[in-house]
Amino acid sequence: MPASLPRPSPPLARLGRFTARHRWAVIAAGLVALIAAAVVGAPVIGQLSLNRYSAPGSESDRVAVALDRTFGTGSPDLALLATVEDGTVDDPAVREAGRDLHERLAAADGVADVRSYWNGDGATLRSDDGTSALLLARLPGDADHVRGDVLPRLASEFEGDGGAGITVGLGGSEELFRQVAAESSADFVRAEMIIFPVLFVLLVIVLRGLALPLVPLVLGVFTIAATLAVFRVVTLSTDLSTFALNITLVMGMALGVDYCLFVIFRFREELRAGRSTEDAVAETLRTAGRTVLFSGATVAVAFAALFALPFDFLRSFGYAGITVVLFGMVAALVLLPAVLAAFGPRAARGVFLRPGAARPAGTGFWHATAGRVMARPMRYGGAVLALLLVLAAPVLGIRFGLPDERVLPESAEARQVSERIREDFTAEEGDAVQVVTEMAPGDDRVAAYAAGLSRIDGVVHVDSAAGTFTDGARTAAPGAGTARFGAANAGTTWLSVVPSVAALESAPFALVQEVRAAPAPAPAEVGGYPAELLDYRDGVTDRLPLVVGLILGLSFVLLFLLSGGLLLPLKATVLNVLSLAVMFGVLVWGFQDGNLSGPLGFTAAGTLETNIPLLMFCIAYGLSMDYEVFMMARIKEEYDRTGDTAAAVAAGLQRSGPLISAAGAILAASFLAYATSGVVLLQMLGVGLALAILVDATLIRAVLVPAFMRVAGRANWWAPPPLRRLHARIGLSESGPPPAPADVHRAPARSAG
């Protein structure tokens, strides 16, 4: 086949002709599908939860199972903080009201293992100044049952007036996460109110009309509704995080708009080239459609890597990301072509501002920018590289830590309770480290083991079947309260290692590691909430190289199939990692170190939570590859036509630059909506991803890519003969086979345009 003729892509071309010829039937089917998806998917919003931090199969997980099955107990999930307005918790009327509060809580449905100061369960349940006391309880059941049924009922029954001048507030890990889930759901609604009008205004500016901009928005809604319908099915077999809802909203609108813009821009080009409506739709899908498929594949690969982690919380985003990408492609490649066929030539005309005529080849801002950069690649590329490295520098100080109450706004009840406990109590009874050991409760070695654990720095005391131990000495003999450490017909016991507030705040993981390293007279395993967080963090970090390797490796393969060379995928990987380094540098500077805490209204914790940065890596890398595919597809098309790298880069940037900048602005605006969130984790996600997208869509695509490709020249397209033959068979091409590599190392003439 001659090099000047386009290589056909029959399936997509046939799809384009089918949708164009049956446009009204396809549009009607799409509307029916949208309504059905909305009906099926709407109820799932109330079925999502914030998954617990647990690592299945880990040491802490085995301890939790043993405590539940053998001893019928576990870590307390709920803390009631009872505060006295006048006097102390030891006043007779207050003590009587406190005991009544204890009995009512113990009798409530869904509550087990209630412990309180007024029931004689330890002096550390009394605040240092005596004005407040704690009631701790375990809430058996899964997260959905506890947060959806039990906690709302307990809040309505116990929160507020506790009698005898007592004010009761609800806290604890389950209540904290319930309020985070509620806040993120409210953020979903708030973000909708921000995203839709902002996107419409941006689309009006980009598409220069009033009717056509509504199409990407409606198709974005279709993508979101279809994804929620899939969620309804997924929740039948696994838990999905409520944060997946937030990701679905912003990714559904952003990716849906991205893909739609790419198709619309190409459709307009084909109309301006003189094609009929049907031919323009077919050629658009033959060329831009294949690029959308490859682009979607790169984003899906990034999200699919999350399934390598055995955690429901992170897998939730894998389901969300892949499903959003799938339906975004369906919207752009099936529904949108039918709508464009219905618009016909009107889709190429601007309603106001100025007519949407195409610029002549070799003119325009983006072409001129590419010319300037490639005329002096080292100067421009070096300056931008230095700037990005400065922005990325804070990443060297990144620290990961525990999520705590500071993820919520100061007005949240659960945060206020947790802060009061942190300030007014010496010991963290609710976050005790639990040790299950193969010794009978009456074994003499239990006392020696408990005494040894109580000597660990940061441990306030150790409760056991042998009594309570502090600093190596027994401070309380076995009594009625120690019966919980034994079980009928069991040759095992467990110990409760109560840490100080200061130890959990400064070095919680080190404390768990010291307890695990302490000599034990019999096999022992360590669990409890601090250990669960440590095992969860270790589970994520242990699998992190696999996740990153999968994303980088599969993306490299996809870009090779697009470009046919080995250097371009390597370049894309390095530049994408650079944009990610800038994103994490800003996260460290703004959120970990607190420099954005004033404008955004959050409290810096001094560390970053593990999950959200990993999720942001997957999203940002996938979206960076998204733009890489858009840009490289046009450059490769021009290079296949001319064989001139410099001219191909300038022409490719002229064609793809306006699209990438417009899509980047729309995507960044979508993510920035979450800067208004009341949850710090969502603020991090919104600000960090918006910055990464803007850096990638401007400095990297407009400066570093042209500079690199100008310096590399013919080497951009190099590959060993076996790989060249492989690419010739299965690679992506929007034009004919490439000409002989008679590359010309010259920059295109500058344009004033």
Q: Could you characterize what this model shows?
A:
- The protein has 753 residues and is of the alpha+beta class.
- It folds into 3 domains: 10-48 and 179-352 and 362-398 and 536-730, no CATH class; 77-171, Alpha-Beta Plaits (2-Layer Sandwich), CATH 3.30.70.1320; 433-527, no CATH class.
- It is 60% helix and 8% strand.
- It has 23 helices and 13 strands.
- It has helices at 10-21, 23-41, 59-71, 92-107, 143-158, 173-207, 214-234, 243-272, 277-304, 312-343, 365-375, 377-392, 413-424, 445-454, 501-506, 508-517, 529-563, 567-592, 597-600, 611-642, 645-672, 680-712, 721-730; strands at 78-84, 112-116, 132-138, 160-163, 166-171, 400-401, 433-437, 459-464, 467-470, 473-476, 493-499, 524-527, 608-609.
- The strands form 3 sheets. The protein has a 6-stranded antiparallel β-sheet, with helices on both faces. It has a 5-stranded antiparallel β-sheet with strand order 2-3-1-5-4, sandwiched between helices.
- Mean pLDDT is 85; it is low at 1-9, 351-357 and 734-753.
- Keywords: Cell membrane, Membrane, Transmembrane, Transmembrane helix.
- The chain crosses the membrane at residues 188-207, 214-231, 243-265, 292-311, 317-344, 380-402, 544-562, 574-592, 612-635, 656-675, 681-704.
- This is MMPL family transporter.
